[in-house]
UniProtKB/TrEMBL annotation:
Organism per entry: Absidia glauca
InterPro entries per UniProt: Cu_Am_Ox_Cu-bd, Cu_Am_ox_TPQ-bd, Cu_amine_oxidase, Cu_amine_oxidase_C, Cu_amine_oxidase_C_sf, Cu_amine_oxidase_N-reg, Cu_amine_oxidase_N2, Cu_amine_oxidase_N3
Residues of the Copper amine oxidase catalytic domain: 237-645
Cofactor(s) required for function per UniProt: Cu cation; Mn(2+); Zn(2+)
Single GO molecular function: copper ion binding
Domain Copper amine oxidase N2-terminal: from-to ranges: 7-101
Annotated ranges, domain Copper amine oxidase N3-terminal: 111-201
Designated gene of the protein: ABSGL_04899.1 scaffold 6065
Protein name: Amine oxidase
NCBIfam families reported for this sequence: PRK11504.1 (NF008559)
Classification via Pfam families: Cu_amine_oxid, Cu_amine_oxidN2, Cu_amine_oxidN3
Length: 661
């Protein structure tokens, strides 16, 4: 790996993006100004080639040899005049376009940040919007702000690239605009850059035909609250590592204690982790080929017109990577921090660097293991630490912290911390928000909704031939008093290994303590004599509450099941499809699994959905305290014992340890 020969999974650099854009612009012609670069990103090489490069597989006869993997980019262009999509593959190795398609899909590419910024301007100068604001007593359009939500599906105008615009008012600079929602909804066409319609949400059971703007200010910034009103009894906590960190980078490949991880990034998923492995004695064992947040959906529960279209697929519709924050020392991350920048492009193809997009650091997380021997052999205690790889995104009102945790005992955890602002709408003075929301301030409603996150887990537990088992903890079916269950206390595990994609579409079941286990049936633990494996577990698996035939269930079918397992295919990455804006037909997982396929002892991919039911509280406003969800991958029969037994107690060598003999 050098600057001239990047790792095959490294994201495109700014220089590479410029090269790709130059090649495309030359092919298109300098006078063509009607198209935008929706995305420019790495086209990941075929998996078999990368595995050979990493040394996990020997290349097949049809594969390129490991040191000549072609460096390619995938480019999506959108012609605004015709709404035609251009999908190109550009070879940086050859300096040429090698594929140019026009996909015939009933959907749209994800929104570009520039398109949303551009929309803000055009909405403010739209005479139709100005006239509606005047009816509400608003004359200063610079204080009107737009959240450009995708329209999901429009019954009459769905052939356009549309936004259902949610408008808010600021009463002063840096005012919390979500305290002042406007009760009319422009429909904006991103291609023509025009407001093409205005829609209204008629207040039910109210004598009012238009809702007034809620005008109570609800601030949260410290300068607005006032220094004298802030808590005065908080003392500083300093987190220091005087000898430096315990991890090191080679390029973007990270090594921390026994862990090895390749850190990637793209405009759509943001953080992507590759080639996750763990050093077990003298052997380095592969665990996961690729791990990413592949999609999410936030369905709102209000069934009336306007609000029934609120179902943001933030990964595919808004591009999580492009919404990534530049992180700040001692605010977003604390301690000895290593930052990685990220590079995306604007809609003209110009690279844009997100400084400090990814934070890497270590944290103390309490006790790792402890035992006190009451028979005179003393006490033993070891502190635990974890490696944290994180990013934070802002998706309109919501902020999401996304954290990968790696522990010393071989455990992997993923956590999402949801915070930011509630998406609000106005109430009439005589209107109740019930049963679909909570009044959080005078004439201000916070609608109940859900957050469903879909993780794509591409395992290689001791190799790429893996199986997935469902594990339930159940009481014995023998009655109390039976010779096999005399006291009635018997319970045990039942394990079902999925043979095919149909049986692998499963739901969480807390009543059975349900977990799933990724196993390698060809390799047995020396003591349990069972396949080596990793258990997948989460306490955050709410079912999708909209009806099975609802619009959101059609567009985000992945959320109708907790787990899907599919055979690996190189270009199957996004469970709701690649072009999921205004999607008209099933895409992604329901298409990939329409035909029943074998998933036992195969190269498989898991799509795991977890999340939150957000029943809005008054305490969620004016800014929402963090609410967390996630999942854990825990070794189960993978090792021959506790792999963290060699972690020394703190200051063991200085004889001031937590080990008292």
């Amino acid at each position: 790996m050098t600057a001239d020969t990047p790792h095959p999974l490294d994201p495109l650099s700014a220089i590479e993006i410029k090269q790709v854009v130059s090649i495309v612009q030359k092919a298109r012609g300098d006078d063509d100004t009607h198209y935008i670069f929706s995305s420019v990103s790495l086209l990941e090489p075929p998996k078999d080639q990368v595995l050979a490069y990493l040394g996990w597989n020997t290349p097949s006869s049809s594969s390129s040899i490991s040191n000549t993997i072609e460096r390619e980019a995938k480019v999506v262009l959108l012609d605004r005049l015709s709404s035609k999509i251009h999908e190109l593959v550009v070879s940086l190795t050859k300096g040429a376009i090698t594929r140019w398609d026009h996909p015939m899909v009933k959907g749209q590419p994800g929104l570009h940040m520039d398109e949303m910024d551009e929309a803000q301007h055009h909405i403010r100068v739209s005479q139709r919007v100005i006239d509606e604001c005047a009816k509400l007593g608003i004359s200063d359009m610079s204080m009107v702000y737009a959240d450009t939500w995708t329209v999901s599906r429009h019954k009459t105008k769905n052939n356009m690239r549309l936004s259902q615009v949610l408008l808010y008012l600021r009463t002063s600079k840096n005012d919390n605009m979500y305290a002042h929602p406007l009760d009319f909804y422009p429909i904006y066409d991103f291609n023509s850059c025009k407001v093409i319609d205005i829609e209204y949400a008629q207040p039910p059971d109210s004598e009012h035909t238009v809702r007034d703007v809620p005008m109570m200010n609800r601030q949260y910034l410290p300068e607005q609250i006032g220094a004298k009103n802030l808590r005065q009894d908080i003392k500083p906590i300093h987190i220091t590592q005087p000898d430096g960190v315990s991890f090191k980078f080679t390029g973007r490949d990270l090594n921390w204690q026994k862990w090895g991880i390749q850190i990637g990034f793209n405009y759509r998923e943001g953080l992507v982790l590759y080639n996750i492995r763990y050093k077990d004695g003298n052997d380095t064992r592969p665990l996961i080929y690729r791990l990413s947040l592949a999609e999410m959906v936030v369905p709102y529960g209000h069934p009336s017109k306007i609000f029934n279209r609120k179902m943001a697929l933030d990964v595919g519709e808004f591009n999580v990577g492009a919404m990534t924050n530049s992180l700040q020392m001692n605010c977003d991350c604390v301690g000895s921090i290593h930052y990685l920048d990220a590079v995306v492009c604007d809609m003209h193809g110009v690279p844009r660097t997100i400084a400090n997009a990814i934070c890497v650091h270590e944290e103390d997380v309490g006790i790792l293991q402890k035992h006190t021997d009451p028979r005179g052999h003393g006490s033993y205690s070891t502190r635990s630490r974890r490696l944290v790889i994180s990013q934070i995104i802002t998706a309109a009102n919501y902020d999401y912290g996304m954290y990968y945790y790696f522990y010393q005992d071989g455990t992997i955890q993923y956590e999402i911390k949801a915070t930011g602002e509630l998406n609000t709408h106005a109430l009439s003075k005589d209107e109740s928000p019930h049963p679909y929301g909570t009044q959080i301030s005078p004439q201000l409603n916070g609608q109940h909704h859900q957050h469903h996150f879909c993780m794509r887990i591409d395992p290689m537990v001791d190799g790429t031939a893996n199986s997935v088992a469902q594990v339930d903890l159940v009481p014995s079916d023998l009655p109390t008093g039976h010779p096999g269950n005399d006291f009635g206390n018997g319970f045990y595990l039942t394990t079902t290994i999925f043979d095919d994609t149909d049986s692998a579409k499963t739901m969480a079941d807390a009543s059975k303590g349900r977990t799933w286990k990724i196993i390698n049936e060809a390799k047995l633990n020396p003591y349990s004599h069972e396949p080596v494996g990793y258990t997948l577990v989460s306490p955050h698996t709410p079912p999708l509450l909209p009806k099975p035939d609802s619009l959101v269930a059609q567009r985000a079918t992945f959320a109708t099941k907790t787990l899907w397992v599919t055979p690996y295919v190189d270009d199957q990455l996004y469970p709701a499809g690649f072009y999921c804006i205004q999607s008209h037909e099933p895409m992604g997982l329901p298409v990939w699994t329409k035909e029943n396929q074998s998933v036992r002892n195969k190269d498989v991919v898991l799509y795991f959905t977890f999340g939150l039911n957000h029943v809005v509280r008054v305490e969620d406003f004016p800014i929402m305290p963090v609410e967390s969800c996630g999942f854990t991958l825990r070794p189960n029969g993978f090792f021959a014992g506790n792999p963290a037994i060699d972690v020394p107690p703190i200051n063991y060598l200085e004889k001031a340890s937590c080990h008292i003999g």
